[in-house]
Each structure stands twice: as C-alpha cells, then as structure tokens.
Specification:
single chain; about 325 residues; alpha+beta; 9-stranded mixed beta sheet; 4-stranded antiparallel beta sheet; 15 strands; about 20% helix
Length: about 325
Amino acid sequence: MSLEADAGLNADEADALSDAESELRPMQIGTEQHAARLDRALVDLVPEFSRSYLQQLLAQGLVSLNGKPVLKASARVKAGDHVVLEMRPTVQSQAFRPEPMPIDVVYEDAHLLVVNKPAGLVVHPAPGNWSGTLLNGLLARDEKALLVPRAGIVHRLDKDTSGLMVVARDRAAMDALVALIAERKVQRQYLALAHGAWTGPKTRTVNAPIGRDPRNRLRMAVVDLAIHPGKTARTDIRCLDGVDAGCWVQCTLHTGRTHQIRVHMASLKHPLVGDSLYGGTPIDPMQRQALHAYRLAFTHPVTGEALEFHAPLPDDMQRLLSSWGLRYNAP
C-alpha cells in the first residue's frame, strides 16, 4: 500500500492527474452496472481510479448523472444513463506531500527513527488538517518515507499531546513495529497533570472498555460492552505527587485506544488540566491537555537491541508544576 492509496489516490492516479488540473470524462452506464450504486458503477467504468478517490469526487459535486450533479455514492443507476466525471486532484489526494518543517529527532538508524513531537502538531492528515502534519514533514525530511505507508507512522499522539513516537523507515521495520505494538511489547509511559487531590492507593489499574460516547459522538467514553461497541483498555496510573489543586501522575499504556489516558483519568474524576473535552479546564500556563509521552522502550525490530528513550518535560508543564509547588523528578 502506498501513501497515495492511503489518501484515496494511488501512484497511477497521481501520475494520471499530474499532467492536467482537470479532465472531463463522459461515460454511459452499461447493462452490467444496471441497478448498481453509482460509486460501484464508476469503479467498473474507470478501473484505473480507486473507489475512495471516486467517492471524493462525488462528495465535491464533480460527478453528474444525466446532466445533474450527484453527491450520493449510493445513488442507483440504470443502463443507458449518462455520467460525466470531472477528474481533478482532491484535497485528500494532495495531502500526502512533502512539507519541510523542523522535526526533533531523538534517535535514527537505517530502519527507524524516534521523534519528540511538540504539542500542537497533528500527526496525520485528516479533515481540518490536510497539511502541516508530522507526516508531511517526514516526507520532506527523508525520501525513503515516500516508499512506506503513512510515511512509516505506526502509532499516534493527539494533536495537543507532546512526546515520543517511533517511525519506521522501511516496510519490514514498519510491519515488525506494528506487530510489536499489537503484542504489547512497546512500552509507552506518559506524565500528566490532573485536577483534584489524589486519594487512596498511590497506584491504580484502570481496566475499562472504551468506545464512542453514545451521548456525544465527538468524544470517547468508558462503555459497557454488553450495550455499546468498544474495545478493552487498560492503563496503570501512579500518583507521583500532588496538592489540593491537582495531582502529578505517571500513566502506563497496555492498550492504545483513542484518548485512552484522557478517558480513564476522567473516569477517576481526575480530568487532565486543559482537557476541555473530558471535563478539564486550563490553568495558566497550560492551555492544552497536560499530557506528555516521556518514555518509549522496545526491542529494535531488526538488530534486536533493547532501546529506551526519554523526552524532557515541556516548558508549560514544568511551569504548572512549579506554580503548584512541585518539582519534576523523572520516574
């Protein structure tokens, strides 16, 4: 799988569209496509283009059926219908492009690199952020990234979470890293500042499934798997220090669910400082969720060497710790 295919545009499609900004292609629905969905019929009629790319054209109003624009991929067609396709690069298809940017590389060899992502940087192109992502920067930094799906990104951090990520530089390393993560052999530890004085045992394990919040589809939530879809999730949490205003915790992931630490901390009534989505509020200078991926450890998938990396605490978290009268001592 190529990067372009991941965006809905494969290498042949990119070449086909590079010579012209737009191309009109008239077609007629045949008997083989009668009563089919429009997107499926288009795949038959223009097999050199992916269904994902054709659906993007539909969504942008670039497909007409019998002289009228059609937006729904599920629209049914009949034999003899006339279709006109206006083929042009979509926002998504252009998202996987090199964009030079500073990248803090902690470690690099022929097979992988480890980066320290700053808060505010989106990892992967998605709606609302089709450019300026870490992926775009990786493509500009290393021509080998063009040959690896998603530029070698094997796991992600939220936009406003800082810290360490491992990135593959070739397909074999990528497949091996994905397998290590699936087997839970990549150790990922985070530091966080949360609201509320910590009480009870210093160490807790949260075993609570996570799924889409049934009351707010923009959030994740702890769910009952007997009622709502979701996946098992486990986080080990250790309180390092605290004051009446909040607590300083270390979180160890055993699974990698979307917003896992944020959801599990909120479920303990300790939402992260600055995490407005899950009940936290900003405390100067923390204007983003106070979460930092400070430690990453795994066995090198090619050399077998044991690797361990630490990322320094960002300035905004350092300053909030200081304002609470706490000092940062690496766990």
